[in-house]
Sequence to fold (206 residues):
Amino acid sequence: MDDFLIYLRLGFDHITDPGGYDHILFVIALCAVYTVQQWKQVLILVTAFTIGHSITLALATLQLIHYKTDLIELLIPITILITAITNFFFREPKSKSRLSTAQQPNRYWRYGLALSFGLIHGMGFSNYLRSLLGNEADIVTPLLAFNLGLEIGQLVIVSLVLGLAYILINIIRTSQLRWTLVVSGIVAGMALSLIINNEYLGKLLQ
Fold:
């Protein structure tokens, strides 16, 4: 049980670590178009991301798939940039009538994007977890605990983002569109900086 709690804490610390803020940026980008009132959409979106990264986190940690670590470190900020850019064009239907059903594929496409990008982030998570495991014989329990820690940390980030959005939109009366554009713009800029400064990209361009 002590080992379980240790890996649970390590998973939580990994995703919430300001020093490794790439995963934080991605979660922020996912939530930037939603408010507290749209928590159901956020829950589905986060679940899609969870399913994606849980799959590759398990496969990579069990060494059932292999990949270039440098490539994944480049792809992660690219997923952040793409997600932030899609926010500029995303419009959540305000009406629940039949007239708004034509806009539903936009929402489903976003869930698919979260699932797909989650696969990439899962491989990034596994790099850290495998370095912790070393020659550990039993990796199933640490894997489950670490993944659960990731999810708890992820939910904390989501709660903070939606809480800040509530304050700015409902109390300070900032428009939801302005909130989305500003947050997405900041995230896109930071992701672009990560891409430009990525060493693997530099090698590819040489």
Remarks:
- The radius of gyration is 18 Å.
- Residues 96-103 have pLDDT under 50 and may be disordered.
